[in-house]
Sequence to fold (149 residues):
Amino acid sequence: MHTLKRCTGADADFRAMVASLDEELNSRYGAQMEFFGPHNHSADVQQALVIYADGLPVGCGCFKPFSADSVEMKRIFVLSAYRGRRLACALMAELEAWAREIGYAFAVLETGILQPDAIRLYEAAGYDRIPNYPPYEGVKESVCFRKKL
Fold:
């Protein structure tokens, strides 16, 4: 059983999940995070989500405006102990529904090649690979996706 909470990037539980995500990314990518880190700021986002299991925050996600008709999905994460329960799918579905409610038609996102589980999640959710968009153009560690909402 899980619950979802819509919030902003300033929410304490969202910030805690983002800190856990950053720890994991730092362990995977090391020094490369000097490039990726500045593009991951989310404290100022207006549409953030926390997922709870057993009453505890166990994951997060958010989106930011990307263009007039698109959002960029960011900070999609579930604690490793809670993976395999389709919580990331629930996060994605709720974020996409929220973006549609606001009037967006598309979602884009970027992930890294060292995150094969994330790549599988996005492909299973109907996202199609696209050429890397700025600032990820030419970044061989990045993979970008787009989906019609």
